[in-house]
Amino acid sequence: GRLNFTESLNQMGADITMMDPHRVLVKGPGRLLGRHLESPDLRAGLAFVIAALIAEGTSEIHHVYNIDRGYERVEERLRAIGASIIRVS
Questions:
Q1: Which run of H or E residues covers position 37?
Q2: Rg of the Cα trace of the chain?
Q3: Cα–Cα distance measured from residue 57 to residue 71, given in angstroms and rounded to the nearest whole number
Q4: How many beta carbons lie within 10 A of that of residue 88, not counting itself?
Q5: d(Cα 38, Cα 49) in Å, to the nearest integer?
Q6: Model confidence over 23-78: pLDDT tens digits?
Q7: pLDDT tens-digit series, residues 4-30
Q8: In Å, what is the CA distance from 16 to each residue of 8, 52, 88?
Q9: What is the chain's percent helix, strand, coil content, to nearest 5?
Q10: Reported pTM
């Protein structure tokens, strides 16, 4: 179930096929569109952040406490390299 978050990436426009519970096939490059997402865990949350940064439009990611647990000051670090990212209370 760790790769179930790929369905949310597909809804953004990615082309990801679940091969089995341990493998996915990713076809790209593809155009991603912003959307509202819920971070189910640490790794999926960061994948959503990366996808949101390259997507057209605005994305909103909820439950970022999962990301905060593993990546200290992630939004500050991404801003330092030019990302447009805002933390909203």
A1: strand 36-38
A2: 13
A3: 24
A4: 6
A5: 11
A6: 999 999 899 999 999 999 999 999 999 999 999 999 999 999 989 999 989 999 99
A7: 999 999 999 999 999 998 899 999 989
A8: 10, 16, 30
A9: 35, 20, 40
A10: 0.90
